[in-house]
Specification:
single chain, alpha/beta, seven-stranded mixed β-sheet, six-stranded mixed β-sheet, globular, binds zinc ion
């Protein structure tokens, strides 16, 4: 796994297909740092923190979760600092915890080979609800680095949070651009809703979970072609 530097304030890790590990974001404010997504498991977040340590970057005080899916949220128990999610994401996590037993965990591991691989050798599945839950939108200033976290329409899930940095002109969008798991079918009206949101944002770069980095134009072109 590599760590990529987009600017003095923005970093992101390499994504991995085999274990479906998404790119994890890192925002370096003047006062504190924020991560975008916690990762697939404690192993994933530990590897990410090792990369931050190697770069001399302090561990995040906050971790924003882009949506409830396991590969983005199931390392929440192992993060440094506190986690933030919207209310829907938090409810999905609560729902998973309420169903969790041996049988349900077996089912979970069969949802996708990448999950079985991440949780091989009976690795415990530890799910946690968010420390901070927001509705609608949330503004955070990490020190000369304003961040707007907001709920958005997405064809992937109904609990998408986008993480927008107006000063840096960067967006972290999680998996918001893809269709639903596991068929990846996208409802065109939801994709249209997402396009309308993205068009309003003044941004140069867009960083998602499982794709190379996009410019705004590239991302919008791809989404419009998919409708
Ligand atoms: Zn997802």
């Amino acid at each position: 796994m590599n760590l990529y530097k987009l600017s003095d304030k923005i970093y992101y890790s390499e994504y991995e297909q085999e274990r479906d590990r998404p790119a994890l974001g890192y925002i370096k404010g003047d006062r504190f740092s924020i991560a975008v997504d916690s990762g697939h498991s404690d192993e994933h977040v530990k590897e990410f923190y090792d990369l931050l340590n190697k770069e001399g970057l302090e561990l995040p005080s906050l971790t924003i979760i882009t949506h409830w899916h396991w590969d983005h949220s199931f390392a929440m128990h192992a993060i440094s600092g506190l986690s933030i999610a919207n209310r829907r994401t938090d409810r999905y996590l609560k729902d998973f915890i309420s169903k969790q037993n041996e049988e349900y965990e077996k089912q979970f591991l069969s949802w996708d080979p990448s999950i079985a691989l991440e949780y091989r050798d009976d690795k415990p599945i530890i799910v946690k609800q968010a420390d901070i839950v927001y509705d609608g939108s949330l503004r955070i200033d990490a020190g000369n680095t304003p961040i707007i976290v907001f709920e958005a329409i997405s064809p992937h899930t109904d609990d998408a949070s986008l993480v927008y940095l107006p000063k840096e002109k960067v967006l972290f969008f999680g998996d918001a651009i893809s269709g639903v798991f596991p068929t990846w079918e996208a409802d065109p009206s939801l994709t249209r809703g997402l396009v309308e949101t993205l068009e309003t944002l003044d941004m140069d770069y867009c960083i998602g979970g499982h794709w190379p980095i996009y410019t705004k134009e590239e991302l919008l072109k791809q989404l419009k072609e998919s409708i």
